[in-house]
Specification:
- The chain has two domains: 35 residues; 115 residues, ApaG domain (Immunoglobulin-like, Sandwich), CATH 2.60.40.
- It is 22% helix and 39% strand.
- The longest helix has 31 residues.
- The relative contact order is 0.20.
């Protein structure tokens, strides 16, 4: 009488144990072949701090271009922009601004900023990568004595 209860419990555990093992093998195979890779599933995005928005972007192993829109309510003068790849061998690439003090961007206007002739050394071409953005600027009305930095994040496919 007691043996039948033990046999039923063991059969129950064995049946569901095999089913769980098969599910784990399938998940492992999908992960191995990259089907479950978060980088292939997540969309591209560019997020900046308040007042400055990133409306478009283009990143390759040797260059980048960001389209930024001023929404601060007054003109700003961008004095620096750097893009740093996160993970692996992180690499920083800075924009060459013209004029040297940087371009003045009117409120509501957009500007495309690129790395210029300075080549970048980003890795993982053909896959998506994460970058940190730092934009140095000052408000034209208050002057260069009051510099600010806005940080952002870019997750983009490197072409």
């Amino acid at each position: 009488m007691f043996r039948k209860k033990g046999q039923a419990a063991l059969e129950f555990l064995m049946t569901y144990g095999w089913a769980i093992l098969v599910v784990l093998v399938v998940i492992g195979a999908l992960a191995y072949f990259g089907v479950l890779s978060p980088q292939s599933i997540l969309p591209e995005k560019c997020v900046m701090g308040t007042g400055l928005s990133c409306t478009d972007h283009q990143v390759s192993a040797t260059s980048f271009t960001l389209l930024l829109e001023n929404g601060m309510g007054s003109p700003i003068n961008i004095t620096g922009l750097s893009l740093t790849q996160v993970g692996g061998t992180s690499s920083t690439c800075s924009a060459v601004l013209v004029p040297v003090d940087g371009p003045v961007v009117a409120n509501g206007a957009s500007i495309a900023i690129a790395n210029g002739t300075t080549p970048c050394t980003f890795t993982d071409t053909g896959s998506k990568a994460k970058f940190n953005i730092a934009v140095d600027y000052y408000n034209v009305q208050t002057g260069a004595a009051y510099p600010h930095t806005i940080t952002g994040e870019l997750f983009a496919e490197m072409r």
